[in-house]
Amino acid sequence: MPAPGQSARPVLVCGEVRTCLLPSFQALDGRAAAQLLRLRADEHVRVSERPNLYVRSPEVLTGVDCRLPTANGARVRAVGTVAARAALTEGRVLQATAWFSAPAAGPDLRRPWGQYLVRPGLVEPFGKLPEQAIAQGVLRGAGRGELDLGMIAEGLLAQLLRHALLDHKAPFKSRRTQLRWTARRAPAGAGPALTRFTLAEDGLRTMELRLPEDIPAAAAASLCEDLALHDWLLTTVVHMLDTSRLGAADGPSAVLALRPAVDHLLHLWMPRAHVDRSLGHLWDELEQEPGFTRQWRSLVQRIRDQLAVQTIPLLHQALSTR
Q1: Is the peptide bond before 313 cis (omega within 30 degrees of 0)?
Q2: What gap in Å lies between CA 91 and CA 30, rounded to an integer?
Q3: Where on the tree of life does the source sit, at the highest rank (predicted)?
Q4: Any idea what the Cα angle at residue 158 is, between residues 170 and 55, rounded to 5°?
Q5: Strand partners, 79
Q6: Which of 201, 86, 93, 184 is nearest to 141 (CA)?
Q7: Statement: residue 4 has pLDDT above 80
Q8: Which of 20, 81, 104, 172 could form a disulfide with 61 if both were Cys (CB 3.0 to 4.6 A apart)?
């Protein structure tokens, strides 16, 4: 087991992403977004304008000393820090992510806090780590007294949503989604792999990965944020279509119901735009099943067809009155 101050190699990374619409009538520009996400005075906010406006906060740490979630009821105490950050895409979609890495084993005695702080995002168990039980426990959800990554991510979202920049006049109604994910070490010589992705009720998704040890936890978090963003877009547009009464509503009502999708969402679809190159190919598996982009293109085409069907009679009516 690692000596004090020595780097511990993680065998498990766990995280949770919360995604929501920014409650602002106008999308934030790059400068305002950077102001919103300035969580630390000693580190810069990352602002990227290509291929879309993407702003990401520096990481903040939460010290933890508690039990880890386990699927088999085992009581595993761990100490360390959880890393968290926020991201804003096109000034519209806000995300908060919390994650930690864990080594195969930790010390039997608690170390001074300083030794945990020099390894941000690392949580050490007391003794051996029951890797599979903890991975399953995180995906199931934390119980009372257990490390709750969702609560940390939600707390960061709540902090940002209190910012004075926001007028809390969202241009349309939407629901939050949450993605719980785990990444276990891949066998020697094996590359990254997406082993499972599930859609559950109430906006919950889960994802399981296998990653080589040389891929940092932050890169895995970026992949999961990208997936969570595009899943939220799909979920939101599907909900808009379900509530728009297409085919039953008259022309103006249908156009009004679908306009938020056209104005605010359709241009945001850019998978892999901010994913580490070593992990970008994992999107190919999502394109095969459940077929994210295929479903998105079908939705977009349906919206465009319906808008055309509803708009053409209005144009004819306007021309006939001239």
Answers
A1: no
A2: 8
A3: Bacteria
A4: 70
A5: 65, 124
A6: 201
A7: no
A8: 81
Task: Give the position of tokens 């999308």.
Answer: 27
Q: Band of the pLDDT at 286, cuts 50, 70, 90?
A: confident
pTM of the model: 0.92
Closest CA to 155 of 31, 42, 16: 16
Higher pLDDT, 307 or 272: 272
Question: Which helix (H) or strand (E) segment is 315 a member of?
Answer: helix 292-320
pLDDT band at 300 (very low <50, low <70, confident <90, very high): very high
Query: What residue type is 134 in one-letter code?
Result: I
Q: What is the token pair recorded at 320?
A: 């006939």
Cα-based torsion angle of the residue sequence 142, 147, 151, 156 in order, rounded to the nearest 10 degrees: -150
Mean pLDDT of 69-89: 97
Tokens 């004090």 locate to 4
pLDDT for the residue 250? 59
Residue 63's closest CA among 112, 18, 14? 112
Distance, in Å, from the CA atom of 6 to the CA atom of 113, rounded to the nearest integer, reads 14
Closest CA to 208 of 231, 237, 179: 179
Contacts 24+ apart (CB under 8 A), 196-200: 197/227, 197/286, 197/290, 199/290
